[in-house]
Amino acid sequence: MAKKEFKAESKRLLDLMVNSIYTNKEIFLRELISNASDAIDKRYFKASQEGQTGLSRSDYPIRVDRDEDARTLTITDCGIGMTDSEMENNLGIIAQSGSFDFKTENAKEDGTDALDIIGQFGVGFYSAFMVAKKIRVVSKAEGSDQAYVWESEGADGYTIEPAERDDVGTTITLYLRDDTDDDQYSDYLKEWKLRDLIKKYSDYIRYPIIMNVTKQEPLSKEEKEAAEADEDGKKPEFKTVHEDETINSMVPIWKRSKSDVTTEEYNAFYKDKFVDWEDPQKIISTNVEGLLSYNALLFIPSRVPYNFYSKDYKRGLQLYSSGVLIMDKCEDLLPDYFGFVRGLVDSQDISLNISREMLQQDRQLKAIASRLEKKIISELKDMMAKDREGYEKFFNNFGLRLKFGIYDNFGANKDKLKDLVMFYSSTEEKPVTFQEYVDRMKEDQKYIYYATGDSIDKIKKMPQNEMLMDKGYEVLFCTEEVDEFALKVLNAYNDKPFKSTAEDDLGIELSDEEKAIREKQSKASEGLLNSIKDALDGKVADVKLSTRLKSHPVCFSAGEGISIEMEKVLAEQSKAVGQTPTDDMKAKKVLEINGDHPVFAAMRRVYEADDKATLKDYAELLYDQAMLIEGMPIDDPVDFSNRVCRLMK
Predict the structure, then answer these.
(1) What phi and psi, each to the nearest 5 degrees, are found at residue 427?
(2) Which intervals of the chain are annotated as region A (predicted)?
(3) CA 39, CA 228: separation in Å to the nearest integer?
(4) 125 appears as a binding residue in the annotation
């Protein structure tokens, strides 16, 4: 029979598919197995429509056979098969989908699908040309007495001729390309490689995928006695056998009823699928049906992945379409702040592009992502309410990611996450939520107070917190760099603004007696304070007597603009990129001095004695002390040391 030319500009389209549409050669096996599954679906569906009973999917296997010597790979199904005219339409016209036509013809009256079928584009078959120099297809349609063979070596065309085949179904034989320096096509004839590809992409095809495999089995007593000994006189313990094995699992664990799956089974699935040696902390299984149907099985790990906070970590869920793996890391299904969640989504409703390797950015995918986000938030809140210890463990692992989520994107997601974050409480001495803080605020308290520092122990010793904590005000401790940035983005919780304990104005009303004392001290010390400010020569925006210090001599507070903690973070970031911080990246420092401390009394004596040199030493020393308390480097360590020595004389 004369060779026929491909239709629909197929030469160009075939070249496009082989070289551009598919980015990963190994998916050819996924496509061929998916097509075989579709063919069996059609036959199975037709039989059930005709009233046949006793049907079992296990009676409809898909075989994968390999011949390393002949360099052939064969996929055989017992599906509905094709006539010569169907071969002409399905294989002779690229992008003509028999599966799509069958699905359309058997749609329900309301337009919804009557059956779940994988292939709808009619191009997956041609992905085989990425690895094959020749393809031979032998098929016999159900209800036909004649089989036909379709052969092609690519864009030059194809032939269709009568053939011999006893059973209904299709056999596709790939004659693999020769190996090159870049591509080892021989790997697709290796048992281990085929097993890996089937488990990776087609593990949940609902029909058994059978392959003849090599195994080692113990010899029976009789076989061992009959076996010949080796040079060392030892007889073999095992024998090599070849037998058929079902490679795929068929029924996904997420498709099974929750009541039929044990926690141990979920844990085993997670550890095997996502390569973890610890059980997940939380399992989230959900099944949604309706206009948008999908199954999702999500896991929150019990520990932080080693590279989670590095640029090498790739977030995303595995995406399946009717049990066939489409993407291993679908980032669009998870927001960054839930990047720690592992798991998968399986849906027949998502719109795929023709290669099934990439998704169209459509409303179905966005809708699934939105629902998953709400589900994760709901499950985390439930964990917080019912398993506080467990939630605190989770937050210790992944809370930083949630805080970044509040700060990121100009706070677009702050309202979703504000009730999930926690901060260490000065009064409770454990992590608490904003709601818990607000519920026990003092009656006249206007602000939610927080303090920043490198650690809880260091924050507890900070002079700025002394008066607040002495008066019984609760302070939240911020020990991560992102904490204050997140609180600034939040601005307030339940109409209660956040206020740093290092701010110039704490917003606490003093008693009349306290006000009178402070006013009298300030007026009496006005000259001294101005002299100290002059001695510091522009290092601080102001010098004043403190209303927050009790036992400590000095501290910094910050005026309007960025805080001192933010200055430290920005300085580190500038240093990392080799830049010098600009003035707008520095806080407006206010040097607060304890007017009741002996140090201030000493400074007053020096001021009254008009000892300007010593007063400058005192002023510089207090400034450096305040810098050290904040954990910031002093300007000149040698000058600091000499100054201390002068004052010790």
Answers:
(1) -90, -40
(2) 1-356
(3) 49
(4) yes
Residues 6+ apart with CB under 8 A from 548: 463, 464, 466, 467, 468, 501, 506, 555, 557, 592
Residue 81 in tokens: 């098969």
Rounded Cα distance between 522 and 8, Å, is 91
226 lies in a domain?
Answer: no
Do both 184 and 272 map to the same domain?
Answer: no
> 49: annotated binding-site residue?
no
Please enumerate in sequence order all residues whose Cβ is within 8 A of that of 364, keeping only pairs 6 or more positions apart, or say none.
Answer: 292, 347, 349, 350, 351
Highest mean pLDDT among 13-27, 341-355, 517-531: 517-531
Residue at token pair 């990121």: 408
Q: Answer yes or no: are the C-beta atoms of 75 and 171 closer than 8 Å.
A: yes
| Residue 333 domain flag | yes
| 123 annotated as a binding-site residue | yes
Predicted local distance difference test score (pLDDT) of residue 157: 85
Q: Is pLDDT larger for residue 507 or for residue 168? A: 168
240 and 262 share one domain:
no
Same domain as 489, residue 347: no
Asked if residue 201 is part of any domain, the answer here is yes
Neighbours of 45 (CB within 10 A): 18
Domain count, the chain: 4
> CB of 377 within 8 A of CB of 420?
yes
Q: How far apart are CA 75 and CA 389, in angstroms?
A: 53
Residue 32 · residue 131 · CB < 8 Å: no
Say how far apart CA 114 and CA 101 lie, in whole Å: 13
3-class secondary-structure state, position 120: coil
Total residues found in the chain within this entry? 649
Considering the domain architecture, whether residues 579 and 489 belong to the same structural domain is answered as no
| Residue 399 counted as an annotated binding residue | no
Query: Which of 262, 283, 400, 257 minimizes the C-alpha distance to 343?
Result: 283
Q: In whole angstroms, give the CA distance from residue 191 to residue 67.
A: 10
Does residue 35 have a known ligand-binding role? yes
Q: Which of 479, 500, 521 is the last residue of a domain?
A: 500
The C-alpha atoms of residue 421 and residue 452 are separated, in whole angstroms, by 16
285-300: average pLDDT: 93
pTM: 0.81
| Domain coverage including residue 613 | 512-648
Instruction: Report residue 109: phi and psi, to 5°.
Output: -60, -30
Q: pLDDT, tens digit, for every residue of 173-185?
A: 999 999 999 899 9
Instruction: Give pLDDT tens digits for 544-554.
Output: 999 889 899 99
In a shared domain, residues 201 and 332: no
Q: Is 122 annotated as a binding residue?
A: yes
Q: What is the CATH number of the domain that holds 198?
A: 3.30.565.10
Give yes or no: residues 494 and 517 share one domain: no
* 97 assigned to a ligand binding site: yes
92 is in an annotated binding site: no
- What kind and span of H or E run contains 491? none
356 is in an annotated binding site: yes
Is 34 part of any domain? yes
Which two tokens mark 372? Answer: 């998953």
